[in-house]
Amino acid sequence: MTTQEKRPIVFLIIDIITFLSYYIILLNVYNNKILSMGELPFWGASILLFIPIMIISRIVLYVLYSIMNSVMTKKREEKFLTDEFGQLIKLRATRNFNNTFMIGFVITMGLLVLGISITTMFKLLFLSIFAAFVVQNLSEFYYAKKSI
Questions:
Q1: What is the per-residue pLDDT across 115-138, written as a single tens digit (0 to 9) for each?
Q2: Long-range contacts made by residues 22-29, C-beta under 8 angstroms, separation at least 24?
Q3: How far apart (Å, rounded) are the C-alpha atoms in residues 68 and 126?
Q4: What distances in angstroms separate CA 145 from CA 7, 24, 69, 86, 89, one per listed residue?
Q5: Band of pLDDT at residue 78, cut at 50, 70 and 90
Q6: pTM
């Protein structure tokens, strides 16, 4: 398996671990924080914290992966996504990320109009952000594998 194929799989695993950890912690502190902050500020703050946490965890864990991969394979990591083909893959994966998030956002807003609770709305927003990250990783893997 090439580095172009490994990279999205590593990011997918990192995103799943980060999302599940953050969401479990979030649900554990929900009852305590909701009384002190209120429901809307709690969910707003939790989403504002979620995105930087995902980005920072991707950076830190991918650096650790690169170091471990270099030590195990005795090869320096290739400069993937620096040529035109790599940029095209990245653009298509980003497009899929944006489309997935926007579909999730529109569905969430539609359900909000139909009367779902604020808590459910924010949980669906979390799910759409997570689904967008997953779709981005899977798209990048697919495009690298198929050489599109």
A1: 999 889 988 998 999 999 999 999
A2: 22/50, 22/53, 23/126
A3: 31
A4: 12, 33, 20, 12, 10
A5: low
A6: 0.82
